[in-house]
Amino acid sequence: MYRKSWVSRAAVALTGLCLVAGLSAPAAAADRIFFGIATGSTGGVYYPLGGMIAQVISNNAEVGGARVIATAETGNASVANARLLQEGSIEAGMMGADIADQAYRGTAQFDNGAVTNLRAIGALFPETVQIVVRADSDIKGFEDLKGKTVSSGPAGSGMYQLFGDVLGAFDMTRADVGEDFSSFSQAVDKLRDGNIDAFFAIGGLPTVSIQDLASSHKVRLLSLTDEEIAKVRESQPYYATTTVPAGTYDGQDEAVKTLALRALLITHDGMADDVVYEVTKAIYENSETLSKVHVQGKNVALESALESISIPLHPGAKRYFEEKGLAVE
């Protein structure tokens, strides 16, 4: 099932993306298939990369003579995107591997009902956990957050869930901090203005809003120890150890050890197989184009397309990967 119409509701936006990315606009077509992609806030990685993925799809995917017109739509990221897919009100959504698994299995924030219609298209890029404080802060380690005001993101977001995961690993609860539920962009402003002590973020490197903040204000990323990372991974095995390289942000002279997980592109079981097949093909056969227009685009690759996926693949995506010789369970 998919939305089909004679008029593209996002033609102007798509043309703008074409010009910015140096890509050609899709040719006019009488019959079009809409493919909306729920992303995140404009200050993260989901939205800009999602926009480029949408453009690649629009330029390359066609089903039965109808062009697939994809659009990236702003939103509240992983958890909210899972809910949109549950309702069938969007064709695809970007989300962390942990949230996809929790939603499909009905655990954590989804313990009131599993989202069993989720189907994976493929893995995109690694998302890095970043805990940001002001450079002059007395917060040196995670446990120093006790009693501080910390933005964990909107209730129900992937960052909110992540914060709870890490708190639990340190035998802390949300009551141990002054939790702030601002959006990512609002949290950046609040830290800059001194209204919060720290914020959690998860995204590709460099994260634009943190990059902008660090270019005008002195900030610091908290580094986790191997023992702290091991504590988190005991209960949440999706997380991996990663490093934010020195120099990723202004004033960051040393590498920062932290956690990471992979972002996935997810659809629902009501999407037509041939549409998802063409979407999957367009993405993974044009990864070189993505690498030229976004720093995280280089991580969208066929070789890693099945990493961290613990929910069923959509049949359309499965067919494409099998044709390319990938081992699909």
Automatic annotation (TrEMBL):
<feature type="signal peptide">
    <location>
        <begin position="1"/>
        <end position="29"/>
    </location>
</feature>
<dbReference type="InterPro" id="IPR011852">
    <property type="entry name" value="TRAP_TAXI"/>
</dbReference>
<protein>
    <recommendedName>
        <fullName>TRAP transporter solute receptor, TAXI family</fullName>
    </recommendedName>
</protein>
<keyword id="KW-0732">Signal</keyword>
<dbReference type="Pfam" id="PF16868">
    <property type="entry name" value="NMT1_3"/>
</dbReference>
